[in-house]
Amino acid sequence: MRSKPVCVLVGHSIEAITSAVVLASLGQRVHLYADVELLTQQIKQYGFEHHLQALWQMYEQQQVISSQALPDSADTLIHYYETANFSDSRHINESNEDSERGEASNVALYWLFLDSVKPAWAEDNWITAFNHSHQQSLPVLMSGIEKLGVVSALAQRLQRAWVYYVPFVFLQDGDAYSSMLNPSLWLLGEKTANSSHHLNILQPLMQHARAAHHADIATIEFARSSIMAMLATRVSFMNEMSRLADSQQVDIKQVSRIMGLDARVGSSYLQAGWGFGGNTLPTELAKLQQSSQTHSLDMPLLQSVMHINEDQKELIFRKFWQYFDGFIDNKTVMVWGGSYKSGSGRTAGSAIHPLLALLWSYNIRTLVYSDKAQDELAALYQQQPLLKLMADPYGQIDDAQAIFIVSWSPRDQLDIAKINQQAMPIFDAQNALTRSQIDSLVGDYLGIGRSKYSQ
Fold it and tell me: Which pTM was predicted?
């Protein structure tokens, strides 16, 4: 009797982990192959994804998801699934001398996450392995951020018809599971036009998407990159306008709300702040820049977006330095938040890193509260004597001469009364405070494109 079909995934990224859990939730069996150390590290770093973590542990215990060490070559992986009558309890790296031979395993699809595949397998190796496979009717999916045209070229080298590309434009840090199960935008690149019916397993995701589009792989690659570049451009534009708003004493947050009322503009990604971080947008812009250089094209707008974003991460420190006329040495400050966005526990590309470096260069003691990013900050700066991680945002507030806000969830109500016990300035890099909260402060307030005196 043939075993239930299995989805074979290769990757250790959050996209691979989320896909494994979502497929398991859709009733599929999943075999995930990855560098074990990197997979364990990734799962730990995304501990703030509570729903995803709970489901991962449950499906592993039930052996619905089986995570295994990535073999040295794709040939080993392909050979295993073509020859072994496997069970969930037997791993590819274990001896299978007693297993029955000759019955091809019931594989539903292969899903390759390129950021994990490329360092482990030589491109010629895995392309050749799949081309020599006897399972040419099985779909092969690819995901990842590459230079424009790279995924399309890989698809052409794969000598099979059912090759697809799924960019994770819908994944939201802090809500990874739900954002994939009900994607805001599902894009599917097809090597063979109008062939999505070969991906029956993924049909629920396509059907639940608020918007969806299928096209050739090269077009979907370009669309993915264009979407991300547009979002980054909107952020940098608003941050540039915030500096002009400062000079006019206009509240940029109110301007953003007004702009959002215009249907031609929309309200997404119009919030001024310290910029954007994480992995997706910076990686996307870097790959887009590489693509332009490959074709000897100048992209001054893209370069400006990247420059504004990097400079913006130091703006809140400059406001702090100017406020105290440069007399900032040996002070003590509170820093609230460390992640690159509220709801996430990742600090990649966050403004907290340049901020801490600048503060420490003036021998400033930093009392940092960041509920979700606490572990990551502790690991990164374990030898830093000027850093103290706080379990309470208001702990030792009496010792501080200023408060910095890097990321703060709108669901967590700020205690203005506790802040007002000390008439200290707040430097709000996220523009987290409402106008009524700003007006009720005893001390000064400086945000990004707004202050206590903005109209």
Answer: 0.91
